[in-house]
Records
---
Amino acid sequence: MEKKPVISIIGGTGNLGTGLAKRLAVKGYKVILGSRSEEKAEKSAAELKRALGVDLIHGMQNQEAVRGGDLIILTVVQSAHEAALKSLKEDLQGKILVDATARIKFPNPKPPQPPSAPRRAQTLLGEGVRVVAAFQNVAAQSFADLEKELESDVLVCADDREAARQVIDIIEELGMQAYYAGDLDAANTVEGLTALLVNINKYNDIHHASIQVTGSE
Amino acid sequence: MEKKPVISIIGGTGNLGTGLAKRLAVKGYKVILGSRSEEKAEKSAAELKRALGVDLIHGMQNQEAVRGGDLIILTVVQSAHEAALKSLKEDLQGKILVDATARIKFPNPKPPQPPSAPRRAQTLLGEGVRVVAAFQNVAAQSFADLEKELESDVLVCADDREAARQVIDIIEELGMQAYYAGDLDAANTVEGLTALLVNINKYNDIHHASIQVTGSE
């Protein structure tokens, strides 16, 4: 059996980060939760370990988390996106960065301006990092409850198809369907879809809206 | 019981137009198929009437179709969008126009430039027409086979919520879920989603990809 990659989650103490950490750890992945504050990261990791009864989750300061991980997932709030990338640029070289960022303007979400957040990340980080966009449209809350089946599909965008493939395999191991949906420019629409989901939650009798892909095989 | 609106479908002899006409007619709607060619419209209508055994579908030249309809659905090919709107502008005044247009560049679909096609339609037609974006993401082929349950949800965008409500009610009568997803600017993302679906069909083991909204009530 191939060795599972160590997965580090930057900005990992938020809803999406801790939810992903849980789902990954119960599938046997070693997970490093990263935060700007080492203390906060360690506290979150300790809580998750206690809740799950597994020893696979560790907390570190973001930079250490990147160094310790094979595959890095970025789940910082949108306002911290650029600063986080700049501070982690050197340590990210040679790795896959999964960027979950969706830029949403509240209270009236509009389609975001191109280039997409993951495209901005790729440009800032350079060719040494393979950026993959994923998780923009999932309802973070749905990850938290392990008893709950995950109902959302994940649209995955990347310039590098092989990097996308690796990320899709991991997502599918977590019990979700994942679809390659185009390059990092296409991620602009995936971000926009998050804005539509915010509207759908607001205007229809539905909570935690996400999407599934339908079709025939 | 309220009288059902007469629904005219402009560019109605294509896959989406004839599919919608079938689904509407079996629910008791009177449908006018419009085409630039009256002969072509009449031929399509006659075929559908024969296939369905109902007398509710008529074929007319586009302008006559608009005059005869209470609610107009625009399903012309994207290259004919602007010209069709210009030629029908006067006759559309006072009506609801459902614009199904999604601008897709082949062979490599990218997120389309704003403003959205339905926003362009609203600007061109003026305030006397209430434009509603819908049906951008449905696989036209899925409408044709009446035995087949419709698996795609419909995202509906409009500046006028009441017009959106009327369109949502009709879509739900056809057996689909419809969700109000924002104003006509938001439709730019819905168009982009069509491009993502083209990519999803191309790169994954799936045909006629569309989307469903998931969530909890």
Note: Strands of chain B lie at 7-10, 31-35, 57-61, 71-74, 96-99, 130-133, 154-158, 178-182, 207-216.
---
Amino acid sequence: MIKEIAQITIKPGTEQEFEQGVNQAKPLFLRSRGCHGVQLFRSVESSEQYTLVVEWETLEDHMVHFRESSEFQQWRALVGGSLAAPPKVHHVSKVL
Amino acid sequence: MIKEIAQITIKPGTEQEFEQGVNQAKPLFLRSRGCHGVQLFRSVESSEQYTLVVEWETLEDHMVHFRESSEFQQWRALVGGSLAAPPKVHHVSKVL
């Protein structure tokens, strides 16, 4: 199991729109192959910075199967208007 | 409840030393005021990049009480030799 960590900066004033979009998109993730959970966090220091954490069984489930799916297109359609820049994405595995 | 997110880059070749240091430091966090958990993640893309996630009841529990404690000094003594740069720290709260 790995976690996708997406650092997201949104346009000023779109907090509500963005959070609603992520909430609406949650089922898109959860019905995708190998997806085991979605969480959204907001930075305490900078209110336009969010971190989306998605749990996947494998890297391929995210980078191949999800990225090439219509669910990914729908996800980007839901939140794309709020993004100030492309999300910075990396993946982590748990050590401790 | 908030999460401290510390982005840590270690010196090449110190992975084992660093992970052991974090493991040894775990009780230092867990006995500190307001601390509810410590997790360590390693980047899939870059093996020298780690993310330490610590759960705190309040920002002050981390930034004031922990930072001014002897536990913080002991934590830095355990892992300081492995760090390539000062950790980049921010805090997040859960939205979804």
Note: The first strand of chain B starts at residue 2 and ends at 9.
